Every structure is written in C-alpha cells, then in structure tokens.
Amino acid sequence: MSTYRIQGATGDWEVVIGLEVHAQVTSNSKLFSGSATAFGAEPNSQVSLIDAAMPGMLPVPNRECIRQAVRTGMAIEAQINKWSRFDRKNYFYADLPQGYQISQLYHPIVGEGSLTIDADEKAGIPADKVIGIERIHVEQDAGKLMHDQHPTMSYVDLNRSGVALMEIVSRPDMASPAEAGAYLSKLRTILRYVGSCDGNMDQGSMRADVNVSVRRPGEELGTRTETKNVNSVRFVMQAIEHEASRQVDVLEAGGKIVQETRLFDPTTGSTRSMRSKEDAHDYRYFPDPDLLPLELDDAFLEECRASLPELPDAKRARYVGELGLSAYNAAVLTADVDTFAWFEALLAETASAQGKQPAEVAKQAANWLISEFFGALNKQGKSLEDSPVSHEQAAELLALVGKGTISGSIAKQVLETMFETGDNAGVIVEREGLKQESDTGAIEAKVDEILAANADKVAQYREGKVALFGFFVGQTMKAMAGKGNPQVVNEILKAKLG
C-alpha cells in the first residue's frame, strides 16, 4: 500500500490517480485510409479525401491497426472482445474535419486487463502492485492547429487526422506520482516489446491524460480533474504533484474542486484550467452507420497470440533463472526493447567468440555492458542506438578479456580508444602493446622488487595482517602497467609470502 501523503495545513490527504494513455498504433497507414503516418512530414502532405472528410468518402478499417490493438490486449492479459463496434463522438473543432471522431465507447475491442508495477523502495513503492486496466479502444486522432505560422490566422495541419490510436484506460488504482510513473514506463516498455507503438513520447506517438483527485485517507473519492496530453513520464509525475497540491489548497481554503480539463505547462511544472469537463452524454455518442461491427474469428486471434514476443516480466525471470543474472541487472537489461536486443546480440557474439555457452558468459557480458559500456555512452551523451561501437566489436573486446589476452583494467582503456577511433579491440591491443603478461619469470621479478621495497609490510602480513595482500597485488599490477595476469600475480605472491 502506498505511503504517499500530501501534508496539508489541516492534516494528511491521499491522491487517487488514473491514466488514459493514447498510443499511436504502429502502421504504415491510418485507421480508415491508406494515407502515410510518417513523423515530421510537410503539413497536409499525408491527407486523403477520407481524412479531409470530403463528401461521399467511406471509411474502411485497417486490419493491421486492429491486429496491433488485439496483440496489445493479449500482452496485458486482457479480455479480447470478438465482437466490437465503432461509435461517433460528436464535437466541433477546427482540426476535426468530420465534426465527429470515430471511436469506441459502448463495445471496445479490448476489455479488462492489468499490469503489475515493480516494487521500488527508493521511489516509495514498497511492494509489487497490480494496476487494473479498464479497456483499450481504437479511435482516430484529430488534426493539429498551428498558431505560430501567421500573425492573425491559425493554420490547420491534417497529417494526424485519422491516425490510429489505442486509448488504454487504467482504473484509478495509483496512489502516488511514483506509481503513475512506474505504470506509464512499464506500459511503454510492453508496447515497444509488442511492437504496437514506438513509444516516442517526444514525437506525440504516446501521451497521457492524467486524472487526479484527492481525499482524506480512507474517505470517498473526490472530484477529479483531467490534465490533457502530457508527453513524458517525468511531466506526468510533475503534473500529479502540482495538481494534487493545488486541489488540497482549494479544499482546505473552503473551496470546491470543479470537474474540468486542464493543461500542463512543462516550463513551470504547473497545470491551468482549459475548459469544463464534458461527460459522455455531451458527445452524443451513437453507432457509426458507415462501419459494420468488428467480428474477430478464432484463427485471427490465434495468429495474434502466436506473434507475441517474450514479454518483459518473462524475459527478466529467464535472465535470473537461466543466465544467473542478478535481479538488478536483469531489470536494467529488460527495461527497454533496444537494451535487451543489444544485450542478446552481445551475448550471442561473446559466447561464439569464446567458444562457450551463453549462460557461461552472461554475467561477464551483463556486468560489463551496464557498468563500463553504459558509462562510456553516458560520458559521450549517446544512446545504444547511436553507439560508435557495435555489439560485434564489444564481443571481441570481452573475448580478449575472457581468454586472458588483456586484463579488465586494460579493457577499459581499450574501450575508450574504441569510442574515440572506431577501431577494433584486437587492432588497438596489438598497436599499443597492451597484451597481458603471463610470463612467470617476468612477473616473479616484479613481485620480488615489490616485496623488497616493502619489507615492513611483508612482516606485518606474516604476523597476521592478511588484508595487506591486496596492497601487494595492486603494487605489482601498477609496476607492470596493468599488464600482469592477475591470476599468475596472485599465485606467485601467495607462494612468496607463505
């Protein structure tokens, strides 16, 4: 149970949160037309006669959009409705050429499901929590008004008009900004795994309407407000914090919360009123007369289910159980589709290069990727997608460590050079003479020098101060510029120290 509370002047308050996430369906064409959906196209360059609501134009459902919605429902273990229907949601706005939006109200394609957010003590989520999902329905997007193109007029761009959206409606089961952030992050991860939405929130292909109300602990639900079109996890959390605190201030001053639609301002981290909140009857929903109901057969559903990939929770469990990774490393590596794909490619290449099974090199690959490689990427402000070092090159570097050709410390140096030059690890090692020294004679000579120079510490070690062993190892490796084989160094030191 969440311990998140808002401290008001008259006592504590709880916040109750629900999210309506609009996710743009991954498809090359729109929900009811063949128009393209590429991001960043010239205004009004991706608009068909249907999108522009020209007289006599009839919509035809895009099979791929329906398929992706069904697959998403299956990924959250939701009820899939074999019979669903499109409705008209009537309202008038300049970027809605039809004067109505085709949506689903009474009979959505996906019914109840759930999503589990993971415990995170630091974030204030003490235990795993199941968040209910009420429905997923499919609808078309509206266009976009552009107010900065002319001093006295607003322009309309209809490129987004008719783009397929999944609206994923949660139950009001979240009780803190952290829970809402975890839910949205997990949902985004699942959508990207499934491939039904690219999750690019900065491009508008995934955005959230944030429903917030406050109440005294244990009391009835309060009046909610809806903050529209919030386009990042961080902004969703900020919007909740601000809106919940605002509502508490209003109530404690003797006021009432008005059910309304609000907007979030990312520059100030605050919300502001937009308009009074409409109810369903205000939109005069009725079945769309131009579209037959959707009827899904068993073969279609089976094809959808068979196409699902291994999902994040299952993948994380496999990484722990089969590969022996720590729970933390498994969580990091499965948090994003690009990360796990890169790791699995690295793992396969590393195992092949070392002639081993993936499970035998998984810990090495995971630890190195998370600590060293991600660190190098962060230093350069890059992501895995634009990494200057490929997973094939990274696997070669790990193979050099695994075979004892170079030490772990030298590998860090080599990686830095790889990032700067793009050269392969083997080339750098040969060119700069970085091969690890395993000659027992050369190492023994260095060990003798170190022990002779530190006779007092040798005596202390032999008197029982065994922690000094690490000092001797460090001094030997330093004297050999990091090229001494650690295993050989350890063996010789143990023999000489007695």
UniProtKB/TrEMBL annotation:
Protein name: Aspartyl/glutamyl-tRNA(Asn/Gln) amidotransferase subunit B
Molecular function GO labels: asparaginyl-tRNA synthase (glutamine-hydrolyzing) activity; ATP binding; glutaminyl-tRNA synthase (glutamine-hydrolyzing) activity; transferase activity
Keyword ATP-binding carried by entry: yes
Organism expressing this protein natively: Novosphingobium lindaniclasticum LE124
SMART domains assigned: GatB_Yqey
Gene (UniProt): gatB
ATP-binding listed as a keyword: yes
Top-level enzyme category: ligase
GO biological process, one term: translation
EC number(s) recorded for this UniProt protein: 6.3.5.-
